[in-house]
Design a protein that fits this description.
- It is built from six helices and seven strands; from the N terminus they run H-E-E-E-H-E-H-H-E-H-E-H-E.
- The protein is an alpha/beta fold.
- The chain has one domain.
- It has a five-stranded parallel sheet, with helices on one face.
- It starts with a helix and ends with a strand.
């Protein structure tokens, strides 16, 4: 992923699909599993900041609130305990001070590099994240997608840890900042049981 994002800093459309088993390259199957984790997502957010179209349909099981919001694990927990309210004097714009993923691609609080929120993609117009995992919670909705004024389409599916009240609250808050003439399609669906 590092080489990919470094090679295309002006990329405006990124589509990642899981299980390309029907595609062949030189007589061999292409990679069958596209797994995006917090480390890969942070690379995308940090280096592909011109993205207008971001579409992932695949294994997002390893993407957590930390990867979406840029917060450390501790900051995510504080926000969960506060019921989505600001608590412990942590401002909403503290994302730049959060720690990066370690070499094993898991979020740690031991390093001091910048972490970036999904909302840093200011040019983003289309975003689809299908099949998110259990570590994507209402914290991701509330803090990860705020301020995306250009966003016209947002699709998030497979939510396990987000209740319908949080989804409704997010939609109401997100759309309240939009002008009436702005069309915005939001589809947020929990995992069907």
């Amino acid at each position: 992923m590092s080489e990919l994002v470094a090679s295309y800093p002006n990329l405006v459309t990124l589509i990642i699909r899981d299980s390309a088993s029907g595609l062949k390259a030189s007589g061999q199957d292409l990679i069958r599993w596209a797994i995006l984790n917090d480390f890969g997502l942070q690379l995308i957010l940090g280096q592909l900041n011109k993205l207008k179209h971001f579409d992932v349909k695949g294994n997002l099981f390893f993407v957590t609130d930390c990867g979406i919001t840029g917060f450390s694990e501790g900051e995510v927990e504080v926000r969960k305990l506060g019921g989505g309210k600001k608590v412990a004097n942590i401002p909403n714009n503290d994302v730049d001070t959060v720690s990066p993923p370690a070499s094993d691609d898991r979020t740690t609080e031991k390093n001091n590099d910048k972490r970036i929120s999904f909302s840093s993609l200011k040019s983003l117009q289309y975003c689809s994240l299908e099949y998110v995992g259990p570590k994507f919670t209402s914290v991701s909705l509330q803090y990860g997608f705020s301020g995306l004024e250009e966003l016209k389409h947002l699709k998030i599916s497979g939510l396990i840890q987000v209740d319908s009240e949080s989804i409704t609250k997010f939609k109401d808050n997100f759309l309240s900042g939009k002008k009436e003439k702005d069309f915005c399609n939001i589809e947020i669906t929990p995992l069907k049981q």
